[in-house]
Amino acid sequence: MNAPRSFSGVERAAVLMMVVGDEEAAAILQKLDPEEVRQLGTAMMNVADVSEWEMAQVLDDFTGRAQERSAIQFDPRPKLESVVTKALGPERASTILSRILPPEPNASISALQWMDATEIATMLEEEHPQIAAVLLAHLEPATAGQVLEMLPEAVQPQVLRRVARLGPVTPEALATLTALLERHSNQPRRAVGVQMGGTREAAKIMSAVRKVTEQKVMPKLAKLDREVARAIEEAMFVFDNLLELDDKNMGTLLRNIESDILVRSLKGADEAARTRFLSCMSSRAADTIRDEMEARGPMKLAEVLEAQKVMIAIARQLVKDGTITMPGGGGDDDYV
Q: Nearest-CA neighbor of 253 among 329, 308, 299, 304?
C-alpha cells in the first residue's frame, strides 16, 4: 500500500472547495484576495486526483459527502470556472483563471506562465511595444520585471507606459499574441478577451526590477508620459512602505504629521502597524494618540484612506527634500 499523501494547508482547503457546492465555494472565494484565489485554484488543480480515502482523512466533517464519490477524478475546470466567476464576476474571473489553468491544446496565452523570462524576452525582440505590454501584464510581476530588464533600454519606458494604460484587451489583439506564441511553441491557442494591465500592474512590475533599472526607466517614462509616471510612482509607494523607515526617519516623519492626520491614518492600521508608528514617539504623545483614536469611534474607510494619502505625500516630499531616506532609495524617487 502506498504511503498516505501529505497535504499542505492550502491543499486541504482545496479538497473542501472541490466537495462543497458552487454557492458555498463562491462565498468562500469572495473573502479572499486575488493571490489567495490563485493559490487555492492552483491547489484545486493539484488535488483533482484525491482518492475517497484521502478525502476522508483530510475532511472528517465531510466524510458522508466524500463517501458518495470513489475519487475526484474529473476535469476540475468547469467547477473552478463556475465558482470563480460567481465570486468575482466575469472580467476579474477571466484574469484569475488565465493564471491558474495550465496550458493545453487551444489554451489562451496563459502558456506564458510556463515560459522562461529569457525565452519571452527573445520572443519580443522584434515585436511592437503594445504586444510586449500585453504579455508583461499577463505575467507574474517578478517574471515581468525580469523580461522588462532584458528588453532594449529605449523600449522599456514605452512598454511600461502601455502596461499602465491597458484596459480590456480585444480578441483581435490576443489573436496576434496567439500567432506569436504559435511561431515559438507550435501549440494552437484560443484568443479570449480579458482585462489586463493598469497602473497597479505596472507598479508591481517596477517594484520587481532592480533599483538601477527603475532609476533609468522612470525618468524616461516621465518625459514620455508624466501622468502615467506619477501614477505608477504613487502606486509603488503605499502606506505600508512607511513601516520600513528606521526609527530616526520615522521620528522625523511623525514630527511633520499633524495629530489629526495621524489619528485617522492609524484608525485603519492593524495593531502591529500602530505599535511601529507609536514606538517612535514619546510615551505621553503615543498615549494621547491612542486616546484620540478610541474617542473617535468608528470611522469611514474613505476618511482613513484620505489621511493615509496625506501621510504618503508628506513622506514623499521629505524624501525628495533629502530630509528622510527610504530603505533602498534616496531623494531621487521623484522624476522630472
A: 308
Q: Which fold has domain 9-100?
A: Annexin V; domain 1 (1.10.220)
For the stretch 232-237, contacts whose Cβ atoms lie closer than 8 Å and that sit 24 or more positions apart, written own/partner, are 232/160, 232/164, 232/199, 232/202, 232/203, 232/206, 233/203, 233/333, 233/334, 233/335, 234/312, 235/199, 235/200, 235/202, 235/203, 236/203, 236/206, 236/207, 237/312, 237/315, 237/316, 237/333
pLDDT tens digits, 126-184? 788 888 888 888 788 888 888 898 888 888 999 899 888 887 766 666 777 777 776 76
Count Cβ atoms below 10 Å from residue 168 Cβ, excluding itself. 11
In whole angstroms, how large is the CA radius of gyration of the chain? 24
Give the model's pLDDT for residue 208.
Answer: 76
State how far the Cα of 69 lies from the Cα of 52, in Å rounded to an integer.
Answer: 6
3-state secondary structure of 204: helix
Look up residue 66 and give its amino acid: A
Distance of CA 305 to the CA centre of its chain: 19
Q: Provide the residue count of the chain.
A: 336
Which CATH code of 3.40.1190.10, 1.10.220.30, 3.40.50.10890, 1.10.443.10 fits the domain covering 239-321?
Answer: 1.10.220.30
Measure the CA–CA gap between 129 and 70, rounded to whole angstroms.
51
CATH of 109-217, one of 3.40.1830.10, 3.30.565.10, 1.20.120.160, 1.10.220.30: 1.10.220.30
Q: In this structure, are residues 108 and 190 in contact, taking their beta carbons and an 8 Å threshold?
A: yes
Q: Do domains 9-100 and 239-321 have the same CATH topology?
A: yes
pTM: predicted TM-score of the whole model, two decimal places? 0.40
Contact 14, 76 (CB under 8 A): no
